[in-house]
Amino acid sequence: MTAPLPNPRMWTLEVLKARIFDGSIDTVVLAFTDMQGRLQGKRLHAAYFIDVALESGTEGCNYLLGVDVEMNTVDGYAMTSWEQGYGDMEFRPDFSTIRALPHLPGSAMVQCDLIRTDHEPVEPSPRRVLARQLGRVAERGWSAISGTELEFILFNDTYEEAWAANYDGLTPSNQYNVDYSIVGTSRVEPLLRDIRNTMYAAGMNVEGAKGECNPGQHEIGFLYDGAMVTADNHAVYKTAAKEIASLHGKSLTFMAKYNEREGNSCHIHLSLRGADGELVFWDQETGARSALYDHFVAGVLATMADFTLLYAPNVNSYKRFAKGSFAPTTIAWGSDNRTCAVRLVGHGPSARMENRLPGGDVNPYLAIAAMVGGGLHGIEHELELGPATTGNAYTSGLPTVPHTLRAARDAFTTSSVARAVFGDEVVDHYTNMADVELAAFDAAVTDWELRRSFERM
Questions:
Q1: How far apart are CA 255 and CA 105, in angstroms?
Q2: Contacts of residue 451, Cβ cutoff 8 Å, sequence gap at least 6
Q3: What is the pLDDT of residues 381-411, one digit of tens each?
Q4: Range of 87's domain?
Q5: Which residues pair with 107 in a beta bridge?
Q6: Cα-Cα-Cα-Cα dihedral sign, residues 355, 361, 362, 364
Q7: CA nearest 103: which of 210, 207, 242, 205?
Q8: Is 339 domain-assigned?
Q9: Looking at residue 56, which CATH number applies to its domain?
Q10: How far apart are CA 225 and CA 205, in angstroms?
């Protein structure tokens, strides 16, 4: 991974103003990423954006970081509650994130940070969580670069039809395993091409598309970038891909495990660079990994169980962790070994670690923050990297990652390392998020229970 180049397709504030004044942009989307990794925010008329929001931003209810997936207000969050009156927080635009949205006529987007009414950052905001860890990296004179690889399953049904069918009996866009198949991707190339070209025009560096294993499963890849840029792009891409699929009369899902076949992964690649692009993970003189690289990987592995909640944030996330599924179950590392949770690839400038634990439902800000925080923990404590796993990690007998959300929640909330890295406010906030999901799931009656019990019990 060499240092990324500036992207000329992202807009400056001057370009956005010019497009507003010439009438080509009439809508500005101000958006932030919530706990679940979703873009939330407002569509502003361009004139209002210029006259008001450009200087003062805009506001939104602080319950947006205190609700469940269904947008229900829930108890247990320190920053927001009925007792506190559900006040406002400011959406503060980050003008380095301005981009066109070519699939939405006349629209541009600016991503935002969240600020409290006392002008302090909202610490549990995912973008803030990542920014704090990247700040720790910068204090050492380094920068973090990363890339995320998101898989999705595409269906010929619309989102409305899928909802009406309770997401049962949907028709995948391919009927068989199309992993690397050119014919398989050709079947849905109009949509894949539209997503690729739209994302390129929206300021992302698109690599390409390939088929995956589950019927209808595909991946569109993007070039690595600065860690914050990658997380921002990831959030925009997930939203835009769904919107573009809808425009084609189709639907797609990034959920970690849609059915009993292969789940949707989100492998995350990460490396560190010096201020002027110097290598941190590689020793040029010896032609081997640097000691810092080994300490970093050792830290990611040492904290993997404690930080799994940030890699696998939902009940469904844990359905991916199955032996022989290419989703990891053991806390192991290997050189180009896809059975391990951490796979080391490349050499010299391309040397990087790949975290194979997250699924397509991951919040990229939190996952990258966990990798950076864990890696810095390893560097600070000079943790030794154990031997590489050269065989099948599934049968290695090594410690495993938590296999349920409840186990991951307990490991995270009781972790002294997590509290040292992220702070009590963040740990308590995301512990409560897990508690809310667990309570909702425990109260639900599933299709599996109905089929198993309706007549036969």
A1: 28
A2: none
A3: 999 999 999 999 999 999 999 999 999 999 9
A4: 13-122
A5: 27
A6: positive
A7: 242
A8: no
A9: 3.10.20.70
A10: 9
Q: How far apart are CA 302 and CA 333, in angstroms?
A: 11
In a domain, 259, yes or no: no
Number of compact structural domains in the chain: 1
> Does 21 fall in a domain?
yes
pLDDT digits (tens, 9 = 90+) for 13-41: 999 999 999 999 999 999 999 999 999 99
Q: What is the pLDDT of residues 318-355, one digit of tens each?
A: 999 988 888 899 999 999 999 999 999 999 999 999 99
Alpha-carbon separation of residue 133 from 119, 128, 365, 373, 377 (angstroms) = 20, 9, 10, 6, 11
Alpha-carbon distance of 401 to 396, in angstroms, equals 13
Distance between CA 268 and CA 148 in Å, rounded?
5
CA quadruple 86, 90, 96, 98: dihedral positive or negative?
positive
- Whether 68 maps to a domain, the answer reads yes
